[in-house]
Amino acid sequence: MALSSPPESSSSLHHSYSRKQKSLGLLCTNFLALYNREGIETVGLDDAATKLGVERRRIYDIVNVLESVGVLTRRAKNQYTWKGFDAIPAALKELQEEGAKDTFHRFYTNENVKVSDDEDDDEESSQPSSQTDSSKAGSLPQTSDSSKIGWSCVTDNRREKSLGLLTQNFIKLFVCSEARIISLDEAAKLLLGDAHNTSIMRTKVRRLYDIANVLSSMNLIEKTHTLDSRKPAFKWLGYNGEPTFTFTLSNDLMQAESRKRVFGTDITNVNVKRSKTHENAASERTLKMKKHAVEESSCNKSFDTTHESRHGSRGYQFGPFAPATGTYPTATLDDNSRRAFDVENLVSDYRPSYQNQVLKDLFAHYMDAWKEWYSEVTKKDPLPNTSPHH
DNA sequence: TTTTCCCGCCACAAG
DNA sequence: CTTGTGGCGGGAAAA
Question: Spans of biased composition, class Low complexity (predicted)?
Fold first, then answer.
């Protein structure tokens, strides 16, 4: 047993295609690592797709939900403005107010999810002003709607059918109710208010999975289980700060990232395609870092006492998604720490993840910080390095 | 088996 | 027309 990792069957045969390395959540994490640093002000979709080695389509998914939370704003075709995590609080507040306004009176109880059967979400209701679009119009008395706070969700027309709105509505569920934990099934049902059409709901849930994954990588929510610890569900974390990688790395990484980027040659990210691909050789035994079992519950709670959202200053401060409110009935469970998860993906090179020089460099910095953090948390350092911290 | 959810077809809006 | 955006759901990996 060389590598920790999955409980896969016996001999590790060709590690074929793995969905985990293609997940939206991971992609989002990388996206954030790439753009969440001072100095960034615009992000181009092509640029992102190229650097991250994915198709455009996926970038749209991420960008749409990030925009729903204010981290990004569409500026023009193919171009977005980076607002950063600092824009989240305001966006959240806005959602809350907005949600409280319209028909979003959901009464939840700590132990019982009660939902009235009447209609529900779709926050566009509000003023029943029949806005029969087009056809001249000339002078409309109450035109109003001149976006007050940047992106407003009203004013939207046909096309705006999902993802962005779904994300906002999903967040409203948390932010406008007492519910701290909601399963996607419940969310889908609530955000649908109707549909028992399995088909409709199935699709909705698929979208929610996508959204939940990127929201998770931002640490706005966390995967857990319902109170009766049965069905998987998500817990609202709010804006506690850290987006996965919070430390700022030195300049050399910046440099690395801005290394030449030519159009014709995209990164080597091949499409392993899904299917039982035989997998190309590439089995180079290189790094084989043994991942210490972090399960030592020791590392949990620690940086919780003072959660200032001021990230950016160097230093580690990983936010291991930690069970801040440590309410895990039975410890253990799938504690796939985002962090450990990422480490594993980045370290193993027998499988190409979203590669790029950027990530390699990022990983190096990340490892250093991790070592430091590790030795501090568990008074024993994994290596001769001793952190000077008291 | 069920749950999670990636992939990419293809509709439709912009150039 | 071509290109940019993104619904939508099949079906395969993961649990």
Answer: 126-135
